[in-house]
Each structure stands twice: as structure tokens, then as C-alpha cells.
Amino acid sequence: MNRKRVCRVEDVPANGLKEVQVDDGLKVMVASTDDAYFACQAICPHQEVPLCEGLFDGGVLTCHMHLWQWDIRTGAPIGLAETPLQMFSLSVEDGVIYLAPPDALSSSELFNGLAAKTLTRLAQLGKVETRDAGSTLYDVGDPVEDIYILQGGRVEFLLGRDERTSLAGFVLRTGEVFGWAALLDGQPARLARATCLERSTLMRINGKEVLKVLESDPGAGYLVMRRLAELVARYLPSASGAK
Amino acid sequence: MRVQLNVRNRAYQFECSEAEKILLAGLHHGVELPYECGSGTCGTCKAKLIHGELVEAWPEAPGRKVLKADQGEFLMCQCAPKGDVSIEVASFVYASSPGAWTPAYFDGTIASVERLTHDVMAFSVALERPMDFDAGQFVLMEAPGIAGLRGYSMVNFERQARRLDFVIKKKAGGGVSEWLFGGDTRGAGLRMFGPLGKATFYPNLGKNVLCIAGGSGVAGMMSILGRAAQEGYFRQYRGDLFFGVRTMRDAFFLDRLADLRGRLPDQLRFTVALSDESVPEAARAGHPQIEFEQGLVHEVAARRMEGRYQNVRAYLAGPPPAVEAAIRVLLLKAKLTTDNIRYDKFS
After folding, report:
1. Quick check: A208 and A187 in contact, CB under 8 A?
2. Domain B2-89 has what CATH class?
3. Residues in chain A within 8 Å Cβ distance of B341
4. Nearest residue on chain B to A64, alpha-carbon basis
5. Assigned CATH topology for domain B203-343
6. φ, ψ at B54 (rounded to 5°)
7. Would an 8 Å CB–CB cutoff place B337 in contact with chain A?
8. ∠B219-B46-A28 over CA atoms, to 5°?
9. Does the CB of B71 have a partner CB in chain A at under 8 Å?
10. Where are the beta strands (DSSP E) in chain A?
């Protein structure tokens, strides 16, 4: 497929980090571990800090600014970090590192790090849509069917109806998941309205179908449910970021 | 003025006058907005203006380098609303927990000043009404007639404090610093906002305490060690302090530290790291309770803490390069987890 050349393997220091600009302007950071290379977004998802200035022990990446940490193999957040890293798939051929085109599913906060077979099955169920600014994805009271993964753009949530509405937050990062009530039992109707604030691209997957896939791969199911619990907890009023 | 704040998990509304910074108004109303320095240097309190107009206090604030100004980003610690505004912070923001001290404005007067070294001064502020704070916290201070707030950590610790003790380093162009070093300020009025800061110590921590401080950063460490000693914490846990200065001429609080160590000789260990000179014999002779070693404070700490990192909570303070060097040692060598490394970046 349309893979892109990143750099040569010797350009990345052993157990070290290197920022590379891929030909179309996309900046990625390549990390080398004992046995493989990994690539993630070049800039910390928290603030505008280059991750190549961070600390790396060969497994865990730490942004030096506010000590957010991630597992470099999966991009999964550790400790203080609130969001995962967007990861890119790499391949190595004749000493050259290549980047596969990014996809929202494998870098999403719920599904990253799952076995390739499971991800492929989920991807086959997913429908990718691009919606204009101002369009409503679902409204209060709509039946809950799909979960959404943001690929690009921005979606805002509004609670209540008519004049009596209040903002209930927003999503803006590639791989963020919303509409996750579709993975829960006893949630027949949407509680909020989801609107695209700008032109946005999303993948939507039927929640029941996702659960079926996860039932066939219980390890993946366990991981996704743990992450889902964490995600739901973030929206509890008493949740606290600094523990 | 009304501030409508949209964050990733919900929305908030709070009042903020045109004379008030949005960050301080939000914190005062119990919204745990992100911040570190509160004084325009770090950029942590960045937000985005959606509707309305702002008045910006310090357009050259160094923290602005993290902003995308063309997208309406601004620093909440530097901006006041001009009319109702709607803003957005792209992170999860929670309401403060009921047990936390709500920061507010406090007025006080300079009760005493004392030169500690050629360029460091101790001063105390008598408060008009008592303040509660946690050991390790700081306040933002405004000198009379000088715009701009700067953070200073409390040295003392007590409940319902009527007096706050601080140390301050002489700094050209530093508003509060120049004012205090410039002449007799005793009796002068001062405005403060606080308490702020998350590098705090509580006696239920249940861990050994490691403090690494450069220069006047030792202030907050004195509060932490002081509170821990008051509560009998060191009967059960160890306390290590590494205090970095250039030369013996720059060291202070040594008598206080020696006195504290004298009372708990087995559980406390205090080391002064001298970066710019070998340890003078007189230093050891004059302060047998304190250890001295030549080197940068994070290097000295790394050498002396080797093998002693079990169950440790670290507190760091001082010039940003010193704090970052210490973080590197604690994460990569000592393998501490990030929640056990506490610091507030201001100086």
C-alpha cells in the first residue's frame, strides 16, 4: 500500500528517540527498543512539547514537561497521562523504516494494542463517515446503536433539550471514543446531543457487533472493558486527575 | 462578568471581574483549572477564547510561547474578561474536593525582614485573617505599585496561620524582590492569592520523604519537614534533604536544619551540595549535624540515595534546570513512579 519512508534504522539511537518529518509533512517520533521500532505522534497530546525531548528507558516514554507517561509499544497511558499516544504501524525492510498509513481504530483509546486479527474484524464492521460542521450525529432520546471513534475534527456534547441545555464536554483527539453507551447494557436512549463543530471524520461501529467480536477474544474483551471503565470514570463528577 | 468554561468532561460558569485573572477567579470558585506557576511563565493554564474579549496583562509573558495565538489561545493567569466570555480548556477539569483549601485573596503587612545571605532574605507577612494551607504550597504575591504576581512558597506550617514566612532571592527586574531588597519595607501592605500548588505533604502519606532543592527552593521543603516533624512522622519514616547552593556563602537555614536533625538524628539526613567550591573544613566543623559534598545537587542526591529509594516520595524545587535534572535521575535511575515525584514549576 502507500507506505512512506521514515528513516534508516541507524538514524534512531539504540534505546533512544528520534523525531522525523515524513515526506508529506507529518511529524512522527520513532523509538527504538531492544527488539523493535515504534512510531507515535511527535508532539505530546497534552501541550505543544516535542516528545523527542522526553525521557525514555527503552519501554516507557515520559514527557519531561508534566511527566505524562506511555507504554511505547501500545501508546497506552500510564500514571498521570490522560490520553493515549497516536501510534503508527512501522515496517522495516533492508534497514529502512516505513510507516503504514494511520488508522483511527488501531490508535484508539479503547482498541489499541489488540491482536491484529481482532482489529481487522472490528475494522470490517466499521463505517467511516465525514460530516460537515454543524451536523448532528445523534440527539437526546435517539436509540443507542453505534460507538464512534474520532479520526479527525471535533465533536461537542450537549445535555438537555430546547432552551434548557448545558455543555457536556467535547472530543478532539484522533482515536477518542464517544457514544460508548452502545457498549453498555440498559442504555437504550442517548442522553446527549453530539454535534460536529468542524468538518469531522469518524468511524462508527455497531456496539452489539463489537461485543460479539470481543466475546470471541476474551483477552481483548477484558482489556477493552477495563479501558471502558476508566473512560466512564473520567466523566464522574468526583473523579480527580491528580491522585 | 460571567465566564462560561467548556472543558472535556463538562461545563462550568463562574463570576470574574475585569480586575481579576480568569485562572484565579476559577480556582477561587472551586474549579480545578490547570496551572503550575500562576505567573505567566510555564504556559500550563492555556485556554482558548470562543466568544468575547479579554484584557491581557503581560503580552510578553514567556509562557505565551506555547500558544497558538491565531487560534485564540491565551494564558488564563494573565487575562481578565472584558464583558462576558466563553472559553475552552482542552483537558478534564474537576470541581475541587470538599477537603481542599479554596484559594482566595489575602491582605497582609510585612512583619519582619532578615538578610540570610548576600542575596537571600527571609521575610514574614502578618495576615489580616488566618489562612489554611498544606505544607509545600505557595502564594502569588504582588508588591505595592508593581504589576505582576510571583509565586513564593511558605517556609512555616501551621493551621489557621496568622503569619506566613518566606525566603526570596535578590533578582534584578523581579518586582517583589527588588522592592524588598530596595529599602525598609516593614509595615508595608501586600496582597497575596493562595494557597496554590500540588507538591504537598500529608502525614498519612506513609512513605519516606526525599527533598531535593536548589537555592530558595528550600522554602517549601522547610514547611514539609516542619509539618512532618510536628506530627511525629519521622518516628516511622526517613527524611532526606539535599540542599544545593553554589558556595557556603550562599547557604542558609543551616542552624535550623542542624537543630531539627539533632532532635531526630537516626531518621533525618541533611546534605548540602556545593556546586562551585570544594567543601571548606569550617563547614563541617561548624555544622556537625549536616553533611556536605561538592557537586550539583541532583548528582549528590543520586550518589547518596543509591539503594535507598524503597517507598520514597520525592519533592523537588528550585531553578527549572535543577528540577529537570532531578526528575531525570528519579525516573530513569531510581525508577520512582511519576505520582511519587512532586514539584511545582515556578521560579
Report:
1. no
2. alpha beta
3. 67
4. B324
5. Rossmann fold (3.40.50)
6. -125, 155
7. yes
8. 105
9. no
10. 4-8, 17-21, 27-32, 37-41, 55-56, 60-62, 69-71, 77-78, 87-88, 90-93, 96-99, 127-131, 136-138, 146-152, 155-161, 164-171, 177-178, 192-196, 200-206
| CB atoms A240 and B332 under 8 Å | no
pTM, 2 dp: 0.85
- Rounded CA separation B92/B10 (Å): 8
Smallest CA-to-CA distance from B116 within B254, B211, B220, B271 is with B254
B310 shares contact with chain A (CB less than 8 Å): no
Using a CB-CB distance cutoff of 8 angstroms, which residues of chain B are in contact with residue A171?
Answer: 8
Is pLDDT of B81 > 60? yes
Flag if B43 and A237 touch (Cβ within 8 Å).
Answer: no
Half-sphere exposure of B168 (CA within 13 A, CB side): 28
Contact B9 A240 (CB under 8 A): no
> How would CATH label the architecture of B104-196?
Beta Barrel (2.40)
Query: Tens digits of per-residue pLDDT, B258-302?
Result: 999 999 999 999 999 999 999 999 999 999 999 999 999 999 999
> Cβ contacts (< 8 Å) between B91 and chain A: which residues?
46, 82, 241
Indicate the average pLDDT of chain B: 93
How many Å apart are CA A33 and CA A61, to the nearest integer? 11
CB contacts, 8 Å: B44 with chain A:
47, 66
Instruction: Select from B7, B198, B341 the Cβ nearest to the Cβ of A242.
Output: B198
Q: Where are the domains of chain B?
A: 2-89, 104-196, 203-343
Longest dimension (CA), chain A: 62
Residue A239 has pLDDT above 60, yes or no: no
Phi, psi (degrees; rounded to nearest 5) at B171: -145, 125
Residue B15: the pLDDT is: 97
Mean pLDDT of the region A186-193: 91
Using CA atoms, how far apart are residues B39 and B324, in angstroms rounded to an integer?
19
Domain span at residue A168 reads 119-234
**What number is the average pLDDT over the span A161-182?**
84
For cell 446503536, the residue is A145
- Among all residues of chain B, which has the CA nearest to that of A239? B94
- β-sheet bridge partners, residue A27: A21
**Residues of chain A found within 8 Å of residue B328, distances taken between Cβ atoms:** 55, 64
Task: Give B333→chain A minimum CA distance, Å.
Answer: 9
Bridge partners for A147 per DSSP = A205
Instruction: Kindly state whether residues A160 and A215 are assigned to the same domain.
Output: yes
Q: Does B50 touch chain A (CB under 8 A)?
A: no
Q: C-alpha cell of A53?
A: 525531548
Closest residue by Cα to residue A194 from A207, A209, A177, A213: A177
pLDDT digits (tens, 9 = 90+) for A47-95: 778 999 999 999 999 998 889 999 999 888 888 888 888 888 888 999 9
Whether residue A222 is found in the same domain as residue A189: yes
pLDDT tens, position by position, A108-124: 889 987 888 999 999 99
- Chain B nearest-CA residue for A165: B11
